[in-house]
DNA sequence: TATTGTTATACTCTATAACTATA
DNA sequence: TATAGTTATAGAGTATAACAATA
């Protein structure tokens, strides 16, 4: 392969001395245009920021929300089970749970069957809080729908269902 | 809203003393199933890992690739312009460019028009290297296509085109 | 020997704030 | 005053390794 393979000719730049472009517009992405990963990254940045903003008052971030939701729907899971299911490192989950336990949303209960592991449960306060978080997360989801369209959101969910 | 709103009944767990589930399968995601952001996050983790693996030999990560590609296609851009176009913090771009400059892929040239700013260019070595990176990135993109299907990848790019 | 939870380390990335030199 | 680049800091997130208690 030569150095020119797949190279796009440099875009015409404002010549020296000419008026400089007023904005960071018109800058070509070249090969990035064809990369799904680039589009997905930019979309994820937008979607995370909207989630964090929408749930800003309750100070819940996406990862915390996912942990609370899975524990709420599957009480008694071990830390390993939650970590594997959500694709989180078990070492990281320790700190996430420390925080959620301090805030009285989650409790670790020593398992009698396997004394190495903890059974995870929501507290009563955690149940109430999670219901509120789900309402706000639904609001966030409506923002997503407004941004990309109802049909596109549904197609996206269908296309990526295998990764959840 | 009550605490029970939108709550899914807890899944049936293996009763105490019964055989425990062998794998972290069958764990319900509850409300996460309907969140585009969750699916996107999981997909992005997969896609980043494949990119990093596919370009592992050349030690180029997605962000570095995006910076090199934009500079290659738009020689002379300032750091601010690159940062804005790619949605990277300008403070972060400083370190990215430090690394790419050390590796002789990029050079910062003091602008004569505005002595505060640097015009960014690829070195000859950078041009050659980027061509190789693009070939590997195309290989990564074929992995994506194999994973989600040709049609789905194209739909994804179409749906998310507005975020690039 | 292997696994669970934990602690620790390193690096990537996001988000700010403040500083300098220029404009 | 405002902007470009830089330095610094803090927290989130990823990726490892190693350790104690337990299986």
UniProtKB/TrEMBL annotation, chains A, B:
GO terms classed as biological process: response to stress
Location of the HTH marR-type domain: 26-164
SMART domains, alphabetized: HTH_MARR
GO molecular function: DNA binding; DNA-binding transcription factor activity
SUPFAM superfamilies: Winged helix' DNA-binding domain (SSF46785)
Matches recorded under InterPro entries: HTH_MarR-typ, MarR/SlyA-like, WH-like_DNA-bd_sf, WH_DNA-bd_sf
Any Pfam family: MarR_2
UniProt-annotated stretches for the region Disordered: 1-20
Keyword annotations from UniProtKB, A to Z: DNA-binding
PANTHER family, A to Z: MARR FAMILY REGULATORY PROTEIN, TRANSCRIPTIONAL REGULATOR, MARR FAMILY
Protein name: DNA-binding MarR family transcriptional regulator
Organism for this UniProt entry: Bradyrhizobium sacchari
Lineage: Bacteria, Pseudomonadati, Pseudomonadota, Alphaproteobacteria, Hyphomicrobiales
């Amino acid at each position: 392969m030569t150095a020119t393979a797949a190279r796009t000719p440099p875009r015409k730049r404002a010549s020296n001395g000419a008026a400089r472009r007023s904005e960071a517009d018109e800058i070509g992405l070249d090969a990035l245009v064809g990369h799904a990963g680039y589009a997905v990254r930019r979309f994820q940045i937008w979607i995370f920021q909207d989630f964090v903003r929408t749930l800003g008052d309750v100070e819940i971030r996406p990862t915390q929300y996912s942990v609370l939701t899975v524990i709420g729907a599957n009480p008694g899971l071990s830390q390993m089970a939650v970590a594997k299911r959500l694709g989180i490192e078990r070492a990281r989950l320790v700190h996430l749970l420390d925080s959620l336990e301090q805030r009285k949303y989650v409790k670790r209960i020593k398992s009698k069957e396997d004394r190495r592991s903890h059974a995870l449960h929501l507290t009563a306060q955690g149940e109430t809080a999670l219901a509120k978080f789900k309402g706000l997360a639904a609001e966030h989801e409506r923002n997503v729908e407004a941004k990309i369209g109802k049909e596109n959101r549904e197609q996206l969910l269908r296309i990526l269902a295998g990764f959840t």
